[in-house]
Amino acid sequence: MSASPFSRKRASPQQIGLKFGLVLAAFLGLAACATAPTEPDALAAYNEANDPLEPANRAIFEFNLFLDDNIVKPVAEAYRVVPEELRKGLHNMILTVRSPPLFANYVMQGNPDNAADIVLRLVINLTAGVGGFFDVATMVGIPAHDTDFGVTLAKWGAGEGFYLMLPFLGPSNPRDGIGLGIDSLMDPIGYFATIWEDIGRFAFEGIDKREPLIEPLDELRRTSVDYYATIRSLYRQHRDDQIRAGKGGANFPAPSISGAAGEPSADARPPVPDKDVALVAGRTQAGAEVSLVPVTSVDLAGSLSRGSAAAASGSLPPTGGAPDRLAEPATE
Amino acid sequence: MLNRRTLLLSAASAAVGAFVPSRAARAEDIPAAASQFVTVLADKVINVLKDKVLSKDDRVKALAAVFLEGFDVRGIGLFVLGVYGHRASESERASYLNVFKEYVVQTYAVRFNSYAGESFLVTKAAPDGDIGAWVTSGIGKAGEEPTEVQWRVRKEPEGYKIIDVVVEGVSLLVTQRSEFAAVLQRNNGNITSLTELMRDKIVELRAKS
C-alpha cells in the first residue's frame, strides 16, 4: 500500500530528542545539586570544577559505567572477531555518512577550506572509495576533519555552561548537549530511517568508538584515584582543543621554578603547530622501539567527545609539525 | 676612519663574545638543549626495552629510574595539590611527596613497558619564556601517522627536567591537578587522605602487575 520511503518513518530524531530531553530534565530536576562551599580553597576548587550538578552527574556516570561494564565493553570486545580491515572500512563508512552535518558546521563556522574538503572527500570516497569503505581521499592528501555543532556554538561565542554527564552519551555540557541535538537534525539519514534503524546506527557507532578505547580506558580507570574527575578534566581540555582546532593557544599553568605550587608563567602557550618549518632537532640513536608517553591520554582524549570518532580510531590527521611518516627504524 | 672603527668594534665584540656568551645567545640555546635532553631520555627508554637480558622486575626498575631522572616529580607533585598545597604541614608534604613519587612511577613509568615497537622523533622546539622550552615530538609505529606529543621542559638548577606532557591539547599536569582537587575537596582539603588513597592504589596496582 505505502511504497513511499517516508511512510516507514515512525519517529523522527527530533521526537526522540524531545522525549530524551524531557526525561533528562525530569531526572536532573529530581537530583540534588551540590551546594557551593564557603571556605575559600574549597570554593576555588568548586569553581574550577564547574560542576554544580556533581552528585547527579556522578550517579549518571555510575549508571553509564554499569552499562559499559555489562553491555558496551563486552560487545566492543566481541566486535574484535571482525578482521581489522573490515572494521576500518566500516569506520570509514560511518565518517562518510556524517558528511552533511560536518559540511554544514564548517560553513556555519566560516571555514570554507574544511567545508570544501568534506565535499571532496565525500565525492572521492563514495566513488573511488566504493561507497565510503576505503578512505581514498586521505591517501590523495585530503585529510579528514572533525567538528560538531557544539564547536560551532563555541565559535559563535557560547560558553560551555557547566559540566553535564548524559546517560548513555557520556560527558557533555549544555552547549554540547544542544549541539548534539542540532547535529542530529542536520543528519539527512535520520529523516529516512525508522526508529529501529536509528537505534541500530547509534549502537553501531558507539561500538565503533568504544573498540579502540578498550585498553586505554581500562588503564586509565585502573590508575585513577578519581576516575570521574579525570574524565571530566580530559573532556573539558579535549573540547577546548577541538574549539581551537589545533591552532594552539591553550594557556597551561606550570609550577614555578622553585618547585612550589605557582602561578602560570608569562608564556605558557605551547607553540602553534607549523606545517612548513619542521626543525628536526634530534632523532633517537637507538632507532625506534618505544613510545615515551602514556598513550592512554591520546586515545582517551580523542574519544571523549562523541563527535570525534576519527580521533578515537587514531585516524585524525596530525595537527601539524609532526612528519607525515616516521622514518623507518635505523638499521645498525 | 669609519671602517677602522667598525673593524675595531667588531674585533672587540668578537673577543668579548668568545669569552662571555651574551644573554640572548644562552637563551636561544635552551630549545636545542631541551630537544637534546628529550632525545637522550627517549634513547634510554628504548635501550632498556631493547635489553632482552633484563628480567621483568629489573626492566620496570630501570624504566622508573629513567622516569625519575627526566621528570621534575617534586615540582609536579607540589603543583598538582593546587590551592590546597599551602595547607599541608612539612611532614604531611614530605610523606605525600614520597607516596606521589611511587604513584607516578606505578602509573606512568610502568606504562613505557607496554609501548615497544614505536618510533620517537623530535620535530620542533620553541622557547617557553626564558626558563624552558616546548619540545614537540612524533611518536608512532613506522609507516603510520605519528601522534604529536609536546614536552614542557624546564632548565632547573640540577639540569633539564620535564614538567608537563601535552597530547592533543590535553595536559597531564592539568588532568592530575583536577583529579587531586576532586579528592581533596571531598576530604576537606586533607592531604593525608589523598596520600592514603594513593597508597591503597599503589598496593592495588602492584598486586595486578
What can you tell me about this protein's structure?
The complex is a heterodimer of chains A (332) and B (209). With 332 residues, chain A is an all-alpha fold. Chain A is built from 15 helices and 3 strands. Chain A is globular. The termini of chain A are far apart. In chain B, strands 1-2-3-4-5 form a 5-stranded antiparallel sheet. Chain B starts with a helix and ends with a helix. The model of chain B is unreliable at 16-22 (pLDDT under 50).
Which secondary structure elements does this structure contain, and how are they paired or packed?
The complex is a heterodimer of chains A (332) and B (209).
Chain A: H1 13-30, H2 40-49, H3 54-79, H4 84-97, H5 99-108, H6 112-127, H7 136-139, H8 149-155, E1 164-166, E2 170-172, H9 174-185, H10 189-192, H11 195-210, H12 214-223, H13 227-244, E3 282-283, H14 295-303, H15 309-312
Antiparallel strand pairs in A: 1-2
Helix pairs in contact in A: 3-11, 5-6, 8-9, 12-14, 13-14
Chain B: H1 2-19, H2 23-50, H3 56-70, H4 73-79, H5 90-112, E1 119-128, E2 132-140, E3 147-156, E4 159-167, E5 170-171, H6 172-186, H7 191-208
Antiparallel strand pairs in B: 1-2, 2-3, 3-4, 4-5
The geometry of chain B reads as globular
Biggest β-sheet strands, sense, barrel of chain B: 5 strands, antiparallel
Task: Please give the number of β-strands of chain A.
Answer: 3
Beta-strand fraction estimate of chain A: under 5%
List keywords for this structure.
heterodimer, A: 332 residues, mainly alpha, two-stranded antiparallel sheet, 54% helix, disordered C terminus, B: alpha+beta, five-stranded antiparallel β-sheet
Can you describe this structure in just a few lines?
The complex is a heterodimer of chains A (332) and B (209). Chain A has 332 residues and is mainly alpha-helical.
